[in-house]
Every structure is written in C-alpha cells, then in structure tokens.
Amino acid sequence: xxxxxxxxxxxxxxxxxxxxxxxxxxxxxxxxxxxxxxxxxxxxxxxxxxxxxxxxxxxxxxxxxxxxxxxxxxxxxxxxxxxxxxxxxxxxxxxxxxxxxxxxxxxxxxxxxxxxxxxxxxxxxxxxxxxxxxxxxxxxxxxxxxxxxxxxxxxxxxxxxxxxxxxxxxxxxxxxxxxxxxxxxxxxxxxxxxxxxxxxxxxxxxxxxxxxxxxxxxxxxxxxxxxxxxxxxxxxxxxxxxxxxxxxxxxxxxxxxxxxxxxxxxxxxxxxxxxxxxxxxxxxxxxxxxxxxxxxxxxxxxxxxxxxxxxxxxxxxxxxxxxxxxxxxxxxxxxxxxxxxxxxxxxxxxxxxxxxxxxxxxxxxxxxxxxxxxxxxxxxxxxxxxxxxxxxxxxxxxxxxxxxxxxxxxxxxxxxxxxxxxxxxxxxxxxxxxxxxx
Length: 438
Ligand SMILES: Nc1ncnc2c1ncn2[C@@H]1O[C@H](COP(=O)(O)OP(=O)(O)OP(=O)(O)O)[C@@H](O)[C@H]1O
Fold this sequence. Notes:
By secondary structure, the chain is of the alpha+beta class. It contains eleven helices and 21 strands. It binds adenosine-5'-triphosphate (ATP). Adenosine-5'-triphosphate binds next to helix 1.
C-alpha cells in the first residue's frame, strides 16, 4: 500500500473562498486517517484534491512520495466513496460492484470471482442479484464500498459515507468499514464531522477549522491534549466548559480570576510570563467532581444548580457559577489581539462616546472604570469578562456543566461545590493557542 500526503496544499475557489489553507498532512501506508471538522472546514475539498477531482491553487499531493499533481483522477488509482452512494439503479448488485472492472481499467477475465470475493468481504454476497432499489441504506452503502475496492485501489477516500444512515446502522457500519480497511491494509482518508466516528475509527485524527489544520494525532491524544481552544471545544460531549479568566502570578501561588470566583493553582514557572494575561480556562465536565461544601482541597468552583439533565446512569448538572463563558465562534479566536492595543484606545479617549468606551473598558483586566460596570460579582483582582454590552447589560449565562453519577442527584436551586482536577485543566491564550502549565 501507499502513503498519501499533502504538502502546503491550498485551494482558493474563483469567488475567493479559501477552502484549504496550506495543509500539510500524511497518512502512512495502511493508516486510517480521519479528517474531522465542522461543516465548511475544507474536508471534502482536501479529499477531492487528493483524488484529482479538483485542481490545487498551490502546494502538492503526493502518493507514495511521488508528486501526482499532473496525474488525472484515473491515473491516481484511488477509490472515492461519497455519502450519496450513487449506485446504478438498473444494474444488479453484482453488476454495480463489477462495473469498474467492465469499464476497462482491469482485465475482465476474473471479474466474477473478484466480485464474489469483494461481496463476501462486505457481507453482501446474498444480495448479488438484487437491484439497488430493493436494498436498505446500509446494504447500499456496503455495495458502494464493494464497488470502490473491487479494483484494488491504492487508497480509499471516503467522504462521510455513513451520514445518510440512521444511528444504529451507522454504529454497526463504523466498525465494519474500519475493520475492512484494516483487513485490506488500504491507506484510508475518511472525512466526517462526527466526533464519535473519528474517535472510534481513526488511527489518527486531523482536526480542521476554516481550511486550517489544527492538530493531528491519535484520538486519545487529540482529545486529552488539545493544541487549540477550537480542538478542546470541538471534541467531547458535553461540550467542554470554556470560561473567561485572567492569570495573576504571585510568589506563592498562581490565581486565575474568573470574574466572580478565583481558582488557585500551585506556583508554576511555566506561567510566570503570562501574568495579567486574559485566558480561556477549558475544563471538561468529568474533570469536575462534586464535593461537600467546605471540604474541598485544591481549586474548586461554587455555584447553584440550575438544571439537571438525567441520563439514567448519570446526570449532567448545569451549575450557575456567574462565570462568563468564552464564545468559541467569536472571531477573536482567529484574530488574536494583545489587549495592549485596547488599552491604547481607551487611553486616547476615543470620540465615539461613552457606551463604546465602557464596552472597551470591560474588555480590559485592569482598565479604569468610569461606571459601576456590569452586574458581575467582582474579585479583588478586578477581572472583567468580555461580552457585548451593547446587546445586553447582563453577562451571558455562565453555566458550568458537571457530570454526576446517578443515583445521588442534586436538586434545582441547591448550592454545589465542585473540585477541579488541575491535571485536566487547560489554558488557552487569546489567539486560542494552548498555554502549557508545566
Ligand atoms: N466550487 C466551489 N466554489 C466556491 N466555494 C466552494 C466550492 N466548493 C466548496 N466551497 C467552499 O469551500 C469551503 C470548504 O468546503 P468543503 O465542501 O470542502 O467543506 P466540508 O468541510 O467538506 O463541509 P461539509 O462537511 O459540509 O461537507 C466551504 O466554505 C464551501 O462553501
């Protein structure tokens, strides 16, 4: 089998859309690499560029170390399967599977036995004489897979092949597809926006956002040690708690001011030069553990139970902590600013009026205030979270979600204290990049 690679691959469409932005990535021979990201992040375009169905604006595609930019889709010998499995409705399953062989890419002598062999692999050997219209969605997708592998491709390119199927079938086929690719040892690029698919099927996951590669690694690594705020937020159910805060480094301790509460961390040399920095604290629901009030050792958060989602074996408890969340969709994550610039703007007394000035002032950890400020509780460190004061005088609801095992469930309105597992607490700077704490 062959390795598939891209080297600073870029695709800009004629209307100016940058769909793929300098993506360098490699799937080793026989590897199952999943491209994961939200809709529009460029996954399908990468696949189409690798397949030769789209021409790159710059950069290269390499198959087995050889640049294939000038080879046609046929010459690249990769098999692509799309979500809408496009079988020929008037041909039987056997004819559909055998179609690529009859279309003249291979000698046709062994067609029948090859079709039978592949149908066996995919578990559709009993259906060879049926028409696609008489198959279930899952069976059709298996036939599409069979048709893709019948020519013994050098690689599989699978574009959300399971997304048209219902949840049960998807789970079943997930295991089948990954198992088949591994049995055949075919290098596979698999596109999905479904994190469960990515985590369960991949040898490695490549997370993309707006055409830019965020991180590549084994599923456990990408989940447990995300490089960017986007990756931390995108992976994990329920969504990772993202809290606005600022770091204050003192000789004996490091404090993260969350606006309404303080988190005290052990002193850390790694954080020394982040004093005064605005950060996002990311902490997953299962890194928070309810403890009896007053007994908490180490950092903890307090709140009032606002909602209990009982899932049977456990519950997700929404805790109103008064902490303002970081909105992950905000462009701030793509366009980091230093805060210094804002300080200058405030100092220059902009002529745009008092509301604008106040809004800017709220964005600064230590900006001087001319009004009482927002209705957030304040700490002695004086950190103000960011929110759009033009839209609302109140900060957005800052629920922290905690995973609580059943059956001991709290009730709405009860106070709750949760211990924060410091080893699983993650900090990100204003550009969304990880700040290592050790
Ligand atoms: N032919 C085209 N012309 C202009 N823009 C395009 C074209 N094809 C795709 N795009 C844009 O390029 C970006 C990436 O699209 P792409 O289909 O690769 O995303 P995706 O991650 O596969 O999304 P999805 O999960 O919805 O399929 C999107 O903003 C899309 O609108």
